[in-house]
Amino acid sequence: MPELPEVETVKRTLTELILNEKIKDVIVTWPKMIKKPDDTEEFRHRLIGQTFNNIKRRGKFLVFELDEYTLVSHLRMEGRYGVFKLSETPDKHTHVRFILESEKELRYRDVRKFGTMHLFPKGEEENSLPLSQLGVEPFSDEFTVELLGNILAKTNRKLKVALLDQTKLVGLGNIYVDEALFRAGLHPEKEANTLECKELVRLHQSIINTLQEAVEMGGSSIKTYVNGQGEMGMFQQTLFVYGRQGNACKNCGTSIEKSVVGGRGTHTCPECQK
């Protein structure tokens, strides 16, 4: 599933491609993706004539700001956006097409069909699901060591499980939790409310650094992820533990291990993360 760095990269590339573009028509071939409104013809009708004025990211969600509406999109497992010429035939996995007046189209492609779209009157998107219950952004001024400590102090869940909770801290998924915990020298099964001050400081900094470096490298293309221009991310080439089970730790040479924590495949160095 695309995490914060991947969604941020898609946001940035789409901003270059469709900002100020006006929607001429909308074609939906998989209605189940449209969660609000529940009538795809109403979805289409509301969007025709709207202009893409801004694109933002909230956690793992893309937020398209239009003239009168806000479109909230979640890529789920394998969703991706791309801009194409009208003359290019869409493939069978393209399920939503935004036809633009410039004779281009923004296409949403999703092999597994898990992606979602919610359309709200502008200004109402933060008051309802899926955005209303999201936690703090890791790149915001609000995300301090003190706040992280307060979040973790309230739960005895395993550290990895607590960090994956999008209602507390957004954007972190399996890849970046594993990487941030390795950099902080913390084991994913440590109870969240047992961290000492120095451990909180390390974890806070490792979360920010890991995500920032990943954004700068265009995210991680582990399986199918590409940005809005069809380009792969490169952060996977610098991973310390994720997906490296059986390989030597880059710090100490110990073999990286894989386990299951909170139902998620988890990668650790048994020496660096005791």
Automatic annotation (TrEMBL):
Co-factor remark: Binds 1 zinc ion per subunit.
Residues the record lists as binding DNA: 93, 112
Annotated keywords: DNA damage, DNA repair, DNA-binding, Glycosidase, Hydrolase, Lyase, Metal-binding, Multifunctional enzyme, Zinc, Zinc-finger
SUPFAM superfamilies named in the record: Glucocorticoid receptor-like (DNA-binding domain), N-terminal domain of MutM-like DNA repair proteins, S13-like H2TH domain
Active site annotation, chain numbering: 2 (schiff-base intermediate with dna), 3 (proton donor), 60 (proton donor), 264 (proton donor)
Keyword Lipid metabolism among record annotations: no
Known catalytic reactions: 2'-deoxyribonucleotide-(2'-deoxyribose 5'-phosphate)-2'-deoxyribonucleotide-DNA = a 3'-end 2'-deoxyribonucleotide-(2,3-dehydro-2,3-deoxyribose 5'-phosphate)-DNA + a 5'-end 5'-phospho-2'-deoxyribonucleoside-DNA + H(+); Hydrolysis of DNA containing ring-opened 7-methylguanine residues, releasing 2,6-diamino-4-hydroxy-5-(N-methyl)formamidopyrimidine
Enzyme Commission designation: 3.2.2.23, 4.2.99.18
Molecular function per GO: oxidized purine nucleobase lesion DNA N-glycosylase activity
Pfam families: Fapy_DNA_glyco, H2TH, zf-FPG_IleRS
Domain FPG-type: start-end pairs: 240-274
Cofactor: Zn(2+)
Formamidopyrimidine-DNA glycosylase catalytic domain boundaries: 2-115
PROSITE patterns named in the record: FPG_CAT, ZF_FPG_2
Membership in a protein family: Belongs to the FPG family.
Biological role stated in the UniProt entry: Involved in base excision repair of DNA damaged by oxidation or by mutagenic agents. Acts as DNA glycosylase that recognizes and removes damaged bases. Has a preference for oxidized purines, such as 7,8-dihydro-8-oxoguanine (8-oxoG). Has AP (apurinic/apyrimidinic) lyase activity and introduces nicks in the DNA strand. Cleaves the DNA backbone by beta-delta elimination to generate a single-strand break at the site of the removed base with both 3'- and 5'-phosphates.
Subunit structure: Monomer.
Name recorded for this polypeptide: Formamidopyrimidine-DNA glycosylase
Species, as recorded: Evansella alkalicola
Annotated gene: mutM
